[in-house]
Design goal:
mainly alpha; de novo design (two linked rop proteins); single chain; 124 residues
Length: 124
């Protein structure tokens, strides 16, 4: 069974790789689709996941750690929203959107698991 630290490391690694995909998708939206408004929100939330996990690694308390992971989780949910909106408005092809959404969903599940375990452990 994975420890919380292992899950955090996996989440960070996946979030970092996801951020690279987000940056590349953002470039596509700007260069090919000439979409500048929604894409900026998508870029901000999608790259914020890993940034908040990086901050969580330097947390000074369990509550601080949990707060940063919680923000990362919420940013992940927001990113899923933007992916769906960009797909449904024709900016993303269905296959690309599904792939991005799947990755975001996987990260969200890992983060939720970390939050659940962190909050249970803090009550003990």
């Amino acid at each position: 069974m994975e420890s919380n630290l292992e899950k955090e490391s996996i989440a960070y690694s996946k979030a970092y790789q996801f951020a690279i995909r987000i940056v590349n998708a953002y470039r596509y939206l700007i260069d090919e689709k000439k979409e500048y408004i929604l894409s900026k929100q998508f870029l901000r939330s999608g790259t914020s996941i890993g940034a908040n996990l990086a901050e969580a690694q330097g947390a000074i308390s369990t509550n601080d750690f949990s707060a940063k992971v919680s923000i990362a989780y919420k940013e992940c949910l927001e990113t899923k929203y933007w992916i769906s909106l960009l797909k449904d408005t024709g900016y993303f092809q269905i296959k690309a959107a599904e792939s991005l959404f799947k990755d975001a969903d996987e990260i969200a599940k890992i983060l939720f698991s970390i939050l659940k375990k962190t909050r249970i452990n803090s009550k003990s």
